[in-house]
Amino acid sequence: MDVSIDFMRRIARAAAAETLPRFRSQGAVANKQAESFDPVTEADREAERAIRALIATEYPDHGILGEEHGSENISSRHVWVIDPIDGTRAFISGLPVWGTLVGLTVDGDAVAGLMSQPFTGELFYANASGSHYEGPGGPRKLTTRKTTELSQATLFTTTPALFKGEARNRYDEFEKQVQLARYGTDCYAFAMVAAGSVDIVADPGLKPYDIVALIPIIEKAGGVVTTFEGGPAEKGGDILAAATPELHAAAMAALRG
């Protein structure tokens, strides 16, 4: 099935109505995990509630998997996967590199998705027509860079600290092979792969709602998204996104050691 850009824009607007008034407002932050810091805000919960309401009205037979409000009807062939604020740590720190992620899977495959950054007025989306951008500078079709060599690549990861044990050693060696390495920015880094500004993102331990929306945005722009082992990314895990198949293969080999 196809998803109209009008529906994607409505999702983005509904989420922004809940997130933007609470951004940089010093609102309350709760911690979801006693053993570590996993923040959640009222903006997360209310934005997801608004998104779910739109989906339920437009597609009442579809399933929904959301970070904050759980799952419903996920045995359906069509399942929407929602992260109302990907980058909550950035959100509570006042940094505009968080985004709202909403993706659609059909029989487990990600076929459409959006990443909305309302503070900067940007919408990245993919549907049957391809991968697209709307925002400052005007609309355009997204295309990845044609980088094929690690030595010419820009790499992002949330933080090398997420790589544990021997995986950290392999990551450190991998980072030495690229031209530029930068940290943070969560979903924004993945969007920049599709936009042709970043070449590789390597992030371990992602959940489905962290990546499903971004898969079609990158793939329809010419990139590749898999696990570190080369498997499908829809169920999350250790995720590697790259601008070209050649670069993806080189990065995957480096991460495997």
Please provide a written account of the structure.
The chain is α+β, with helices and mostly antiparallel strands and 257 residues long. It has helices at 5-19, 42-58, 88-92, 166-176, 186-195, 208-211, 214-219, 245-256, and strands at 29-31, 39-41, 63-66, 70-72, 78-86, 99-106, 109-117, 122-127, 130-134, 140-141, 154-157, 180-183, 200-206, 224-227, 237-242. The strands form three sheets. The protein has an eight-stranded mixed β-sheet, with helices on both faces. A hairpin with a 4-residue loop joins strand 7 (109-117) and strand 8 (122-127). It is globular. The N and C termini lie far apart (40 Å).
H-E string: HEEHEEEHEEEEEEHEHEHHEEH
Structural class: alpha+beta
What CATH calls the topology of the largest domain is Fructose-1,6-Bisphosphatase, Chain A, domain 1
Annotated CATH architecture of the largest domain: 2-Layer Sandwich
Q: Write down the Rg.
A: 17 Å
What is the highest CATH level, the class of the largest domain? Alpha Beta
Give the neighbour order of strands across the main sheet: 4-3-5-6-7-8-9-10
Strand elements, count: 15
Distance between the termini: 40 Å
Q: Strand percentage, roughly?
A: 25-35%
Helix coverage percent of residues?
25-40%
Mean of residue pLDDT?
A: 95
Task: Determine the CATH superfamily of the largest domain.
Answer: Fructose-1,6-Bisphosphatase, subunit A, domain 1
pLDDT < 50 stretches: none
Shape: globular
